[in-house]
Design brief:
The protein has a two-stranded antiparallel sheet. Helix 3 packs antiparallel against helix 4 and helix 4 (about 65-90) crosses helix 5 (about 100-125). The chain has six helices and two strands. The chain starts with a helix and ends in a 7-residue tail after the last strand. With about 170 residues, it is mostly helical.
Length: about 170
């Protein structure tokens, strides 16, 4: 984004993602073999290409912001999962059946935990005591996130095994 501003060119999310991928691969070419890198790029691509256009078109239909927020979370999660699915199947030979529901349960909590963490760190520069309180509250949100992931992931139907060739 900064480079596009320097070049006085308009930046798009897709171009920014492409530039980030090229820079990372220029610095570390073997990052392409890292499953975390692959899934991050695919998930971001899915959100940009599938979720954003759908969410933008649905904003006119859902006037209630809470319902629209839940729909947007579900669409975002499904879009990321769709684009990551071939790599997940190839790498792990399994598919999560509870991933979208889990994401809906924790998406707001993740935002709250990250916000509290940043606030706690910034306040820590001025008052370590207040910072400790803010980070203590954040720890409860993080415990909720971990509990949701553990409970949903331990369900007997949470994952299904699929043949590796189905990634194709």
């Amino acid at each position: 984004i900064a480079l596009s501003l320097c070049l006085k060119r308009e930046s798009t999310s897709e171009n920014t993602l492409s530039a980030a991928v090229m820079i990372i691969l220029a610095i570390s070419p073997f990052a392409i073999l890292n499953i975390g890198f692959q899934l991050s790029v695919l998930a971001t691509f899915g959100i940009l290409v599938i979720a954003v256009p759908i969410i933008n078109s649905l904003k006119e239909i859902f006037e209630n912001k809470i319902i629209m927020g839940l729909v947007a979370c579900a669409i975002t999660s499904i879009s990321a999962m769709i684009t990551c699915l071939p790599v997940l199947i190839y790498a792990f030979s399994s598919v999560s059946l509870v991933g979208v529901i889990t994401n809906l349960l924790i998406s707001s909590a993740v935002t709250i935990a990250l916000s509290l963490g940043i606030i706690g760190l910034m306040v820590g520069l001025v008052s370590p005591v207040i910072s400790g309180g803010v980070l203590y509250i954040a720890s409860f949100v993080i415990k909720y996130i971990n509990m949701c992931i553990n409970k949903m992931g331990s369900l007997p139907f949470a994952m299904i095994e699929v043949p590796r060739w189905s990634a194709l």
